[in-house]
Amino acid sequence: MTQARAEPGNLIDGKAIARRLTDRVKIEVEALREKTGQLPGLAVVLVGNDPASEVYVRNKALQTHRAGMRSFMHMLPETTPQDELLGLIARLNGDPQIHGILVQLPLPKQIDPAVVTNAIVPHKDVDGLGEVNAGRLSLGIPGLVPCTPLGCLILLRETLPQMRGLHAVVIGASNLVGKPMAQLLLREGCTVSIAHIDTRDPAGLAREGDILVVATGRSGLVRGDWIRPGATVIDVGITRVPTHDGKTKLVGDVVFEEARQVAAHITPVPGGVGPMTIACLLHNTLQAARLTLDPQGGLA
Ligand SMILES: Nc1nc(=O)c2c([nH]1)NC[C@@H]1CN(c3ccc(C(=O)N[C@@H](CCC(=O)O)C(=O)O)cc3)C=[N+]21
Ligand SMILES: [Mg+2]
Fold it and tell me: Which residues bind NADP(+) (predicted)?
C-alpha cells in the first residue's frame, strides 16, 4: 500500500535526523565513560590523496570529536603496498584504545579492498563490510551493519509508520549499499526487489516500489516517470557536477525536481543520506566499543 500523494516533495531531513542520532550517541558515550572510565576510539585510514576522500575523512574526524569520542587518523601515501596497510591494520586490531577501524574506499589499485576489509577484526569492523558482519546480516544475527544502508533504514523508519508488506525496490546491487540495504528491508518485512546493471526494465521495476532506494552512482539516472506516485524515495547517489557559473554542486542519482512532484517523501542531496552515513558510523563505533568495554550492553 502506498501513501496518498498529498504533499508532493515532502523532504526527508537527513541533516536533522543525523543530528538527533549524533546527540543520542554523545549521551551514551558519556554514560559509557562513567561506567567504564573509557572513551570509544575510531581509527580512520586514508590511502592516497583524493581530495573528495580527504574532505570526508576530515568530516568524520570532526563529527567523532563532536560525539565525545576519540579519533585517530592515518594518512598513507598513494603508493603504499598492501602488506604495509595490513601491518597497520594488525596494529590497530591489537590496540585497546581503538574500538572501530574504517579504511576509506576506494583504495589504490595495488590494494585489494576485500583483503583489507577482511583483515579488520569483526568486532572493530564499523563499516560492517567484512565477511563475518555481512554474513551475520544475511542470517539475521546481531552484528555491525554498513553505515549507509543503516542510515537509509533509519530515514525510512522516521518517515513510514509501517514497512511490513511494502514493496521496496533497491536500484544498485553493490556490497557497500545495495545488498545490505536489501537485507535490512527484508528484515523490516518488505517485499524486496533488486535492480542491477543487467535488469531488463529498471524503470518499470522502480515504478512498482512503494519504497525506492537508489544507489548507482549515476547522476540523473532516475527520472520522475520511474517513480510510483506516493512512493518514498531515498537517493544514495552523490556526484559533484559543474554548474553554469563555473562552480560545482552535489547531485544525487535521482532527478530531484521531477521526482519530488511524484513522490510523497524524498531525500535531498546534499542533506539526505550523507549526514546519516556519518551519524551511523558514530553509532557503530559506540556499539563496537560496548562489545569490549560493556559486553552486557550488546548489539542493537
Ligand atoms: N570505508 C568507507 N566507508 C564509507 O562510509 C565511505 C567510504 N569508505 N568511501 C566514500 C563513501 C562516501 N561517504 C560519504 C559520507 C558522508 C557524506 C556526506 O556527509 N555528505 C554531505 C555533503 C558533504 C559535502 O558537501 O561534500 C551530504 O550529503 O549532505 C557523503 C559521502 C562515505 N563513504
Ligand atoms: Mg545526502
Answer: 172-174, 197, 238
Sign of CA dihedral 246, 248, 252, 257: negative
Per the annotation, the verdict on 104 as an active-site residue is yes
> Are 110 and 81 contacting, i.e. CB atoms less than 8 angstroms apart?
yes
Ligand number, closest to the Cα atom of 234: 2
Q: Which of 3, 63, 104, 287 is catalytic?
A: 104
CB atoms near residue 297 (< 10 Å): 17
* Whether the domain at 37-124 and the domain at 146-274 fall into the same CATH topology: yes
204 is in an annotated binding site: no
- At 8, the pLDDT band (50, 70, 90 cuts) reads low
- Between CA 3 and CA 12 the distance in angstroms is 15
Query: Is residue 117 within 6 Å of ligand 1 at its C-beta?
Result: no
Is the Cβ atom of 56 under 6 angstroms away from ligand 1? yes
Pick among 3.40.190.10, 3.40.50.2000, 3.40.30.10, 3.40.50.720: CATH of 146-274: 3.40.50.720
- Kindly report, residue by residue over 85-132, the tens digit of the pLDDT: 999 999 999 999 999 999 999 999 999 999 999 999 999 999 999 999
Q: Give catalytic status of residue 245 as yes or no.
A: no
Q: Any idea where the domains of the chain sit in the sequence?
A: 37-124, 146-274
Establish whether residue 105 lines the binding site of ligand 1, counting it when its CB lies within 6 angstroms of any ligand atom: yes
Q: Tell me if residue 109 is catalytic.
A: no
Contacts of 292 (CB under 8 A, 6+ apart): 96, 99, 123
Q: What's the mean per-residue pLDDT of the chain?
A: 95
Distances in whole angstroms, Cα of residue 53 to Cα of each of 94, 181, 206, 225, 252:
26, 23, 31, 33, 17
On whether 141 is known to bind a ligand per the annotation, the reply is no
Strands 41-47 and 70-76: parallel
